[in-house]
Amino acid sequence: MKRIIECVPNFSEGREMEVIRLITETIEKVQGIKLLNVDPGYATNRTVVTFAGEPDSVVEAAFQAIKKASDLIDMRHHSGEHPRFGATDVCPLVPVSGITMEETIQYARALAKRVGDELRIPVYCYEQAAYQPKRQSLANCRSGEYEGLPVKVVSKDWKPDFGPAQFNARSGAIAIGARNFLVAYNVNLNTTSVRRANSIAFDVREAGRILREGDPLTGKIVNDEKGEPVRIPGTLKKVRAIGWYIREYRMAQISMNLTDIAVTPVHAAFDEVCERAAERGIRVTGSELIGVVPLKCMLDAGKYFLHKQKRSSGIPDEEIIGIAVRSLGLNELAPFDPKKRIIEYLLKDEAKNQLVDLSLRKLIYETASDSPAPGGGSVSAAVGALGAALGSMVANLSAHKRGWDDRWEEFSDLAEKGKSTYENLLTMVDEDTRVFNRVMEAIGMPKESLEQKEIRREAIQEATLLAIDIPFQVMKMAADAVDLLERMVEIGNPNSASDVAVGSLCLRTAVSGACLNVRINAVEIKDPNLVKETLAQADRIEKEVIKRCDEIQKQVLFKIYAK
Fold it and tell me: Does one domain contain both 174 and 189?
């Protein structure tokens, strides 16, 4: 899975559009970055920018943006409605996919250190990147705002985590941290009553409602022994919510911030609001996601609703997302386009996936052309993906076969395993061609001098080792998929036995084809000991797969002729 981090810096400028343009332009100049949103506010005199990409690129773009903001924004002349204490007021990093929170924290702290060292701006690490518990809260870090910094930064309790412990009059200070992904999510109701919407919001939000005597809205507030209002907690953790009326749509909504979708995902919030609304005779008619969301958010929702229907979730992502969109009613107020609303899709680099994104006809034409790539390696990976896909198809068909309703979960798990394999094999279609091109580039390197010859030789050997490893990985992936086909010929829908047989033929071809690529590239390695074990393993895998696939063929033929 591609490693993706989102960054949401807030800059203390929301009125001078040229300043905002120069900052965002700096972000976009960093390779591998996608600018997702720019939201300036005139009254707050603040702009929230959202961008994402691979971790190193994100950290570099964040640093350059902070640097540009320190050049363009003078906090001595800043005023606005929103709390603030720096030119770049806050800069959180958010893990999206392929990266843990622990890793994201390290990137945040590395960014904080660089800002402190190179830009000489006081930095406070907050949220999950905080070094001290009291600094986890952004409000605590920013208390006193810009005007309080001259005293704050030199105090013992609030010495910056990085940068000088002295007041930077021009740039102020900055909070840099790591936090979970926040989803702004609204649920639509078939009522115009804000009072009833708020009642539902109080039911579900973590803060709940204040306990009152008698009427829950107008009764006397009940206090504890310390004189503080007693609260009845809501049902959803890490959720803030309020009810409001949207004049444009003539409906009330529950407006929620899901501050940690690992704790309360979108689908859980939706279903809970549905239940609480129904208790008050109100129906949920749909919902809307504000901004962009991670792919996992939509896949988790789709799988949740599929499982409620006792249907297999081992289907393509596009279909799972479609189930999520329909189940959550995300198309009610405006069309929900996954390509524009899911971070991973926005960041997709078409150039890196040009083969797998071609139509079947164009892929065949591309293969048949007079260029050496794509060749047998890419075709082996593609054929292997087809074999694994057939295994998933049979599992999915078995999951909803009449009379097998109690076995849907077993088949769903098997279909998901097949899906994981064919998705991995699809990545190898382009990877094989990319590595082949790398070998060709190494061969084409200059070799006039002894030094150049040595550099060229090492580059060729390194690229060739990769050209051995990629088809070897294809062999192992395809071999894993044979497990699925063996299960399907044993317990799967008997009407799909021929599909299992075709799938096994595809996997056998993929393994033997990839093995040929391992062998032909191994010949070019000067030190045979480097690949001796790989060749031995490749031979064992091929022989084992051929044997197992032949057995699948025999079992299928037996089933066919036994009818």
Answer: no
For the range 77-80, what are the long-range contacts, defined as Cβ-Cβ under 8 Å and sequence gap of 24 or more?
78/12, 78/13, 78/45, 78/146, 79/45, 80/12, 80/14, 80/41, 80/43, 80/44, 80/45, 80/46
CA dist., res. 274 & res. 280, Å (int): 10
* Distance from the first to the final alpha carbon of the chain: 44
| Contact predicate 514/537, CB 8 Å | no
Helix %, strand %, coil % of the chain (to 5)? 55, 15, 30
In which element (H, E) is residue 300 found?
helix 295-308
The verdict on 288 and 416 lying in the same domain is: no
Cα angle, residue 293 at apex, residues 430 and 16 outer, rounded to 5°: 105
Please list the active-site residues: 82, 432
Residue 498 falls in which region: left (phi positive, over 0), alpha (psi -120 to 50) or beta:
alpha
Q: Does 401 lie in the same domain as 307? A: no
| Single pTM value for the model | 0.81
Question: Do β-strands 183-189 and 231-232 pair in parallel, antiparallel, or remain unpaired?
Answer: unpaired
Average pLDDT along the chain: 92
Looking at the fold, whether 39 and 125 belong to one and the same domain comes out as: yes
For residues 217 and 499, which has the higher predicted lDDT (pLDDT)? 499
Interacting residues of 503 by C-beta distance below 8 A, sequence separation 6+: 386, 387, 388, 389, 390, 391, 394, 481, 485, 488
Residues 518/470, Cβ–Cβ less than 8 Å:
no
Does residue 201 share a domain with residue 64? no
Phi, psi of 342 (to 5 degrees): -110, 125
Same domain, 477 and 443: yes
Q: State which of 178, 194, 223 marks the end of a domain.
A: 178
187 and 292 housed in the same domain: yes
Provide the domain limits for residue 361. 350-562
Higher-pLDDT residue of 563 and 63 is 63
Query: 3-class secondary structure for 436-454?
Result: HHHHHHHHCCCCCCHHHHH
At 351, the pLDDT band (50, 70, 90 cuts) reads: very low
Domain C-terminal end among 136, 163, 178: 178
Is the preceding omega at residue 9 within 30 degrees of 0, hence cis? no
Beta strand pairing status for 231-232 and 209-210?
antiparallel
